[in-house]
Design brief:
about 425 residues; about 70% helix; about 0% strand; disordered N terminus
Length: about 425
């Protein structure tokens, strides 16, 4: 076995389970459970199952499974032990430590695909320096793995999409899908690239076909959300609402709020809403405001409900937070949402314009952060400055094939019905 061997062509149960996990397939969990059941002393099998299910495990069970996995992995070898230790760090949300560990792991075992499952730790650090290091690491490992390795080609496509290099991302994603048509990472990168292009109904139809082949795929809801955004881009708001209501449960507050706020910004009725009390409970829960992007999504849910007082309280809480991204970025964005819901677009525009490029620190990815720019454009139009809004969105209306949504953002209109009205 060489240091760059792959798991993408083997026929053993372990290899099939790993391939399903790399592809984000709905078959991953059954196969991982079968693997652990058949080889209970395999540390890698137990570690990967724990990685895939960590969000569903309480702290006691999580620790118990990882202790068992690490003990077994240490008996198997250094590579296995290193992989499971990385899983321990990642599942405990120690993202900086995970990223540091992965750099050492890949130095010894280049292009290790199973370890590649954790490269998202670099962006989860919420630190530009770590994001840059993560991008460089993926580029190096993809080069070592070669162009015929679909997992690393898929991860490189994701990096290029987030860098705004849509053409490269699209080409890489298509190559990965040609090598392995069920690559969930590749189809997600393709969705991001085609969002940048304003791709139309044909792209949405492809997503529908891809999802129909594996309804249990890990990214089913997220890719359905991408399809809803395509419908919004094309001006088919009824289809966007239908997709959101069919695919996103009310508990899925973030994507539902991101869909509904976009609809409201262009004067359209939202899809099914989240419950304000539920959002308040999420904010009050331990760790409810631990991550900037998660808190921002909860703020969007409050904005959809025109919960101005809640937004103002959340903005004050963020402004008092010692963490710079919460204090200097999240707080003014939430305050701007409150100003929009209160009918003060000029104030909202002032707050968002003052942030400039710092809005990138809100977290998430380009497609998700774009909603901040949408809000600024709407605020500028409603404040009587449509020319400035048009300049803000020129890069989108000038390059996207379908941009009915952007056209409506730039349209002067009568005040929309209050977002919180039935």
């Amino acid at each position: 076995m060489t240091t760059t061997d792959t798991v993408t062509t083997g026929g053993t149960l372990g290899d099939r389970a790993a391939v399903a996990l790399l592809a984000l397939s709905g078959r991953a969990l059954p196969l991982l459970r079968e693997w652990v059941g058949g080889e209970p002393d395999c540390g890698v099998a137990r570690g990967l199952l724990t990685l895939a299910t960590a969000d569903r495990l309480d702290d006691t069970v999580l620790r118990e499974q990882l202790v068992l996995a690490h003990r077994a992995a240490c008996a198997a070898g250094e590579r296995e032990a290193s992989l499971v230790y990385g899983i321990f760090l990642h599942t405990h949300r120690q993202y900086r430590l995970t990223a540091d560990h992965l750099e050492g792991h890949f130095a010894r075992w280049p292009a290790d695909e199973r370890a590649g499952l954790m490269v998202g730790a670099f962006s989860s650090c919420e630190d530009d320096a770590y994001r840059t290091r993560g991008d460089a690491l993926v580029e190096r490992q993809a080069a070592l793995a070669g162009p015929d390795n679909w997992p690393w080609t898929s991860w490189l496509a994701s990096v290029r999409a987030e860098q705004g290099r849509a053409r490269e991302a699209h080409d890489l994603a298509e190559r990965a899908l040609a090598l392995y048509p069920r690559s969930g990472v590749a189809v997600h990168a393709l969705a991001h690239a085609e969002h940048e292009w304003g791709a139309g109904p044909a792209s949405t139809a492809f997503l529908d076909r891809w999802l129909a082949a594996d309804p249990g795929a890990v990214q089913t809801r997220h890719l359905s959300w991408h399809a809803a955004l395509r419908s919004i881009a094309c001006g088919d708001f009824e289809d966007a609402r239908r997709r959101a209501d069919a695919a996103l449960p009310r508990e899925d507050v973030g994507m539902r709020a991101a869909t509904n706020w976009r609809l409201l910004l262009v004067g359209q009725a939202p899809a099914g809403r989240s419950d304000v009390e539920h959002v308040r409970e999420l904010l009050a829960a331990p760790g409810g405001t631990a991550e900037v992007f998660h808190t921002f999504n909860l703020a969007l849910a409050l904005a959809v409900e025109a919960a101005t007082d809640d937004l103002e309280r959340l903005a004050r809480r963020a402004a008092a937070d010692p963490r710079p991204d919460h204090r200097d970025v999240l707080a003014p964005v939430v305050l701007a949402l409150a100003a929009i819901t209160a009918g003060r677009p000029r104030e909202a525009a002032r707050l968002l314009e003052a942030l400039g490029d710092r809005t990138a620190r809100i977290g998430g990815v380009r497609v998700e952060r774009e909603i901040v720019q949408d809000t600024l454009a709407r605020a500028l139009v409603d404040a009587g400055e449509p020319a400035r809004a048009a300049a803000l969105l020129h890069h989108r209306t000038g390059t996207r094939h379908h941009h009915a949504y952007e056209d409506l953002l730039l349209t002067t209109r009568a005040p929309a019905p209050e977002a919180g009205t039935a």
